Each structure stands twice: as C-alpha cells, then as structure tokens.
Write a sequence for this structure.
C-alpha cells in the first residue's frame, strides 16, 4: 500500500538527491496524492512533465540537463552543450545538443528545446563520461572527445566554434594533442584537424 504521508514523501526526495520522477516516487512506495499535495503546498517544484525537485534545495545548477538526466537517460550530452558544461566555449546553446546511436529509435520528447544528433554506434561510447546533475546520472562527452566532435560537425556548428573549443580546452583543461589526435583518428577528422593542432602546439 502506498503512503500518503507528506513527511515520508519528503524523506524519499532527500534520500534520492532532491530530484525525482513520478514513477521513481511511486516505486519508493509514495502515493501520487502525496506528490500533488507537496506540489500544491510549494514544497516541491515541477521541472518538467513528471519531474519534480525539492523547493528548498534551490535552483539546480543545470536545470535543462537535469531534465535530460531524468527523461532521456539513453542520450548523451554533446557538442555545444557539452562545451558549455565543461566551460570551454563562449557560445550559449539555444537548445540542448544530444547524441543517440545512429539506426536506433529514440523518441526524445522533453519540455525544453533539444537538437538530436545521430552518432556512429561503433564510436558512440568512446569518451563518454557520467556526471551527476541534480542527484541523477548524466551521460556527457568528455573535453577531448567534444572538441573533436565539434571539428566533425564544423559545417553545422561553424569552424570558429571548433577552434575556440580547441584553444580553451588547451588553456583551461590542459588537454594534450595526443589525446585529441586519438579521437581525431577514431572519428576520421585527423586531416582537417592536424593543421590547427600543429599551430596551437
């Protein structure tokens, strides 16, 4: 039997990091009546459809990425959104850039603007890291892989975005050329990247 006790519901929220999906709360033994009562009383706030956060934990550092972590766990944050997360761009993404393996069906319906890219399934997991956002795991590409991806998608993003990412990654994250070259070979962009890597060395 599901509990309608609000204190029990709040305890579950705190134990799970402050952000929960409705189905996770139900799986933890809390009735939806308790969830709606907490929302009406202002003790929790709705981040997106079926996604709630404790009001007293303050604004999530990455609210859009918290929505992605909760509602698109099989997608990976990539390109400009990953650059922004790693603080190696001056770009402000107008939508969250997500990668999914090509030839796989992923229906991503979120309450935030999203741009979906289809990556090669053979290299999809290369350079993928797991970070925690609002208490939930989030798949996001690491710095070196993201810089190389920007060169791969330079015709869509612009070469200036890729060059800025390369420069800032070298300055702020101390990314080495050999690490960048490894991903450049893997993603078959070594030839267009090499002159810029030599220039920045």
């Amino acid at each position: 039997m599901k509990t309608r006790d609000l204190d029990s519901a709040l305890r579950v929220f705190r134990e799970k990091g402050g952000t929960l999906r409705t189905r996770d709360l139900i799986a933890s033994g809390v009735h939806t009546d308790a969830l709606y009562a907490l929302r009406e009383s202002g003790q929790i706030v709705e981040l997106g459809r079926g996604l709630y956060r404790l009001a007293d934990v303050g604004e999530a550092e990455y609210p859009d990425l918290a929505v992605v972590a909760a509602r698109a766990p099989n997608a990976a944050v990539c390109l400009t959104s990953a650059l922004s997360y790693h603080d190696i761009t001056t770009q402000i993404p107008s939508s969250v850039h997500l990668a999914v393996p090509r030839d796989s069906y992923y229906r991503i319906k979120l309450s935030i603007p999203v741009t979906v890219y289809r990556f090669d399934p053979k290299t999809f997991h290369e350079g993928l890291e797991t970070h925690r956002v609002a208490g939930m795991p989030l798949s996001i590409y690491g710095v070196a892989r993201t810089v190389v991806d920007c060169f791969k998608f330079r015709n869509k993003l612009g070469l200036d975005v890729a060059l800025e990412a390369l420069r800032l990654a070298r300055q702020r994250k101390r990314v080495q050329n050999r690490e960048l070259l490894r991903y450049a070979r893997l993603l078959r962009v070594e030839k267009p990247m090499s002159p810029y890597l030599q220039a920045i060395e």
User: Anything to note?
Assistant: Strands lie at 19-21, 44-48, 51-54, 76-77, 96-101, 114-119, 128-133, 136-141.
